Automatic annotation (TrEMBL):
<protein>
    <recommendedName>
        <fullName>DDE-1 domain-containing protein</fullName>
    </recommendedName>
</protein>
Length: 95
């Protein structure tokens, strides 16, 4: 539980900083929104841009620091693979 909280806090902190930076940069050249719906739409765009700015490697490192990295079989490219269970596989019974 505690490790997962670290992951959430680290990702949220990064997104908050990126969103704030985008918001401030936008208002250097643009006027403030005149209505709440305009402000919501603007902030939504900043959130999308902030998520796009986060590198996948950053998210992976966050999972690793939180101790929630999947372990198990990997393919030759290093991607995690789940076991494939075949429905028609023969059943084996011990003697």
């Amino acid at each position: 539980m505690r490790k997962n909280r670290f992951l959430c806090v680290s990702i949220e902190c990064l997104l908050l900083m990126l969103r704030r930076k985008l918001y401030l940069e936008h208002h250097l050249d643009n006027p403030f929104p005149t209505s709440t719906s305009e402000k919501r739409a603007l902030i939504s765009r900043f959130v999308v841009k902030a998520w796009q700015a986060v590198k996948p490697d950053t998210i992976l490192k966050g999972f690793a620091r939180a101790g929630v990295v999947p372990t198990g079989p990997h393919d030759r490219d290093g991607r995690f693979r789940e076991a494939v269970i075949l429905a028609d596989a023969p059943l084996v019974q011990d003697g």
